[in-house]
Design goal:
Length: 102
């Protein structure tokens, strides 16, 4: 995910629309082999927008290179991270505002 990423990566996070009724969005990162600072910022901004509406943005399927980079930068600690989308619960944990690894 970066400037040269897929079509979704090129869309500005400020233009992204969030359904305020959504309590949870799980981003499937299983096809993501690279994520630069632009991608990190997009995910962090999206996470903040979800929190503003009482929801949460979670990640699933982080591949080793991306997972390592998220861990080194400390970004992994602010998201709930699931092994894959099937393991992400349909209904998120209570809205405690905290992060965690599931």
């Amino acid at each position: 995910m970066g400037v040269d990423g897929g079509a979704g990566a090129r869309r500005s996070p400020r233009r992204a629309r969030f359904d305020v009724r959504a309590r949870q969005i799980v981003v499937d990162c299983s096809g993501l082999g690279f994520c630069d600072s632009t991608g990190l910022n997009a995910l962090l901004k999206a996470r903040l927008r979800m929190r503003e509406t009482g929801g949460r943005l979670n990640l699933a399927g982080l591949r080793p290179p991306v997972d390592r980079m998220f861990d080194i930068t400390g970004v992994r600690a602010v998201f709930r991270v699931y092994e894959d989308t099937a393991r992400a619960p349909a209904d998120p944990a209570p809205r405690d505002g905290g992060a965690g690894h599931d």
